[in-house]
Amino acid sequence: MLACLICCFLLMCKMADWNDENTRILCELCAEQVKANNRSGTHLNKIGYDNVMAKFTERTSISYDKLQIKNKWDKLRQDYTNWKVLLKETGLGWDNERKTVRASDAWWKKKTKEVKGITKFKDRGLQNEDLLAEMFEDIRNSGDDHWCPLSDVVPQSPAHEIHVFNQDEEDGGDKDDESAAEEVTPSCGQGKRRRVPEKDKGKKSKTTRGQWMEEQFYYIVSLNEKTSASCESMARREDTSGCAIKDVMALVKECGAKAGSKEHFIATQVFTKKAEREMFMTLDTLEERFEWLKMKYEWTTRNDIFK
What we know:
- By secondary structure, the chain is mainly alpha-helical.
- The protein has helices spanning 2-14, 20-35, 46-60, 66-87, 105-114, 129-136, 158-170, 209-238, 245-254, 262-270, 274-281, 286-302, and strands at residues 39-40, 43-44, 93-95, 100-102, 182-185, 192-195.
């Protein structure tokens, strides 16, 4: 009976067809549920999963259950985390055709031992990155200050070191006495203490004030990186309003302002401001938009804005 259940389970997992199109649709639906606050912790809640399953079937005529959707969610989250780890690598080239980093086979072989699954980006970059950012950026385990369970490497981050150090502070900090000369030796069994030899008693504790200040500095840097990542995530979400620069510039070309023309040039200057983009979007026809760009250029040059 158990063997039959296992076979049925494996058959069910095998039938899931996550091609590029189905994956893109799933990402769109999941990002939609995250925006609707239907994610609890690191996964969608029941309402989120139910909505995704129903809408996925509606759009693809394929019916997947919650377990299949959840397994794909976990895989996409790990892919997104690995991609962010990869982009932090320095000294590598960039392959514009494949949209991924360029590195030697030896480098990839070494890297895959550190981060499981990262070699999938050897031939192609991350797909649906904007949607995955909506889904995972604010809960992303980047590997900077946390251990990723799917990785064999336990990173040694400043944040971890600070938490360990705080325990030393509670035990007496850097007092230069006999009690501070003892340190706990970790073991799988019961904890044991060893006494520092007499000749070492005059030395300061391993945790000095200088070391503490250095660790606090790295901790502040780590917090700053997280804040920057959150700001970038918010910026990406704002671009979904329909007034993103790339969307507006597409309309600029559509209305007849070709690259190299004065109308296209003025668009590249003024549409860095959201208010200008919103004003442009209120115009109804292509002719109105082109005339607006033309008049904007003439008004700007007449008032010497560029000088």
